[in-house]
Every structure is written in structure tokens, then in C-alpha cells.
Amino acid sequence: MILWRPMRGDDLPAVLRIAETLHPDYPERIEVFADKLAFFPAGCRVVEDADGAIRGYAFAHVWSQGLPPLLDQPLGPLPGPADCLHLHDIALMPQIRGHGGATLYLNQLEALAQARGLPALTLIAIKGQDGFWRGLGFKEFIAPTAELTARLGSYGSGNSYLCRDVTKLKESDTQTA
Ligand SMILES: CC(C)(COP(=O)(O)OP(=O)(O)OC[C@H]1O[C@@H](n2cnc3c(N)ncnc32)[C@H](O)[C@@H]1OP(=O)(O)O)[C@@H](O)C(=O)NCCC(=O)NCCS
């Protein structure tokens, strides 16, 4: 069973190692991870195994629809209204994949969005992961702008900005993997 727990500052070196292994084309500095953790700790979680090793992480934060943050930059002020939870990244090491870990984290995020009155989850699906997110109900953002295209460009080419409405969850969806 996958168990997510809140991320702590001392998890960040292990988080960085996973990010460097799984996302070599999307490098981010540890200061940028620390900025996201300080900005919205409720959205930042890790998977720790029985030996105390970190095997996965996820960063999400309150943000503005259609205006995703730039890669490897501190967040700064919101560029618009606080109207979504933006999933910046989720990464699980291969040995813990396929056990519902991503689904469980998403359900937890959705519960968080509901509790904060945020109507949508947003994310940037990196090249090759589009199908995964569409399978989980994410769709193309309905009102793309030139600014969205410019922000997306900081991640390179071939990535997509996707969105999913927040729906009502059963309580059990956020508790089991
Ligand atoms: C993306 C990732 C977090 C998914 O982790 P996971 O443990 O496989 O997720 P889950 O077990 O919750 O799978 C959720 C569903 O997606 C399906 N799925 C998994 N990988 C898929 C893929 N590449 N394409 C399509 N569907 C996929 C699963 O079969 C499952 O469906 P089911 O519930 O009907 O069985 C993991 O593969 C990963 O860390 N990848 C590398 C980092 C990455 O690309 N992150 C995303 C950045 S946008």
C-alpha cells in the first residue's frame, strides 16, 4: 500500500535526487522546491518506505487557471485569481508504481481543493504523459491565451496544459491506495 505523508524541508535532498533521475529534461533547483514547500505545504507530500527512504514526491499549490508557473523559478505573487490547485509535479520511483499512488494523491488534492473552494485541478502533462492524465479525466484548458503558450514554453516543447473540474469525492477515496 502506498502511504503519502506531508513533505518536510529535510526531505528535499532526496526529492531532488528523484527529480534528477526521473525528470532530467526538466531540471529544477532545490531552492525552487523549497519555495513551493514554503508557499503551500498542504499540497507537498512524499512516499516514504519502511526503511525510511523517500520513493516518490508530489508538489501542488494554489494558483491561477491558465497561467502556470515557469519551470525552475520561484513562484512569486499569484498572476491572477486563486482559482485552482496546480499540480506542479508527481514522480514515483518505478518500484512503487502501479499501486494507485498517483490516483490516491490526486484524490487527496481534490479533497483539498474542495475544502478551499477551488473549482479546478490543473497541471502540465510532460511529453509522453498526456495519455496518463487524460485517462484520469484531465482535458485541454478551454481558454488558452498567448501568455499560457509563453509560460508553457519554459518547459520546452511537446507539453500540454490540462485541467479537471473538482468533483464530489467519497471520503474513502482519500484514505486507501
Ligand atoms: C505518472 C506516475 C506518477 C504514475 O504513477 P502510478 O503509480 O503508475 O499511478 P497509478 O497506479 O495511480 O495509476 C493510475 C492509472 O493510470 C494508469 N497508467 C499508469 N501509467 C500510465 C501511462 N503511462 N499511460 C496511461 N495510463 C497509465 C494506471 O494503469 C492506472 O489506471 P487504473 O486505475 O485503471 O489501473 C509514474 O508513472 C511516474 O512517476 N512517472 C515518472 C514521472 C512523471 O512522468 N510524472 C508526471 C509528470 S506530468
Automatic annotation (TrEMBL):
It comes from the Bacteria. It holds the Pfam family Acetyltransf_1. SUPFAM superfamilies: Acyl-CoA N-acyltransferases (Nat). Residues 2-167 form the N-acetyltransferase domain. InterPro entries: Acyl_CoA_acyltransferase, GNAT_dom. This is GNAT family N-acetyltransferase.
